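Notes from the 1:1 (GR / supervisor)

We went over the backlog. Supervisor wanted to see one worked example end to end before approving the batch request, so GR pasted a single chain during the call. The sequence is below; no edits were made to it. Supervisor asked that the structure be written out right there so they could see what the output format looks like.
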Amino acid sequence: MTGPGGTSTAVRLIRADVDIPVDTPRVPAREAAQDELSDPMYHEHDPNLLERGLDHFWDWIGDLFAGAAGAAPGGPLGLVVLVLAVVGLVAALWWRLGTPRRAAPNPEALFGSTTRSAADHRTAAAAHAEANRWTEAVQERMRALVRSLEDRAVLDPRPGRTADEAAAEAGRLMSAHADRLRAAARAFDDVTYGGRTADAAAYRTLCALDLDIEAAKPLLTTDTAPGAAG
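Structure output shown during the call:
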């Protein structure tokens, strides 16, 4: 069409074929996008709650060490040396003091509620040693030693006697073995109340002392004639 009206009609037809963008309001557009993104298909590979928590935790640890490394003399290397020194100190204290205990056991329970002979305690000690239970073996051999002293009337049978008391009393009557008796009592206390563990050497030392005490002749009283000490 070429007339005045034809030109206008052509222009309108051309404009009708052009895609005119739709101007959607902001709020409805945002809501439409949120609805679309809420589809589970968009979140199949998202980390779960535990993974997100671990990510935050390790980020926090990284930030903590980064800050500590910046403050420590020598930077990261100085921080590593400092951490190793602290770990070494804790290990040394743990070895020296033993495993912490919530409450100290009653130190008067040397023999327990059941009365057993020295031979019974030695048999029990040997059985523990055979099974490499050195702590129990040391405990039973110390009880055998003290029970043997009571059976021989070197010590009067007294409920509640501790290993330290027995060693001190026996040491006064057997001065040649006083130091070894005190050492045996300390070993018993360490494994019974201090959380330490015994070994084969400690058990053999106590066995040798038990045999020597068994063969020794005590000085029963200060009024006894000379030659009674062993």
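Supervisor's comment: The chain has a mean pLDDT of 75.
Batch request approved.
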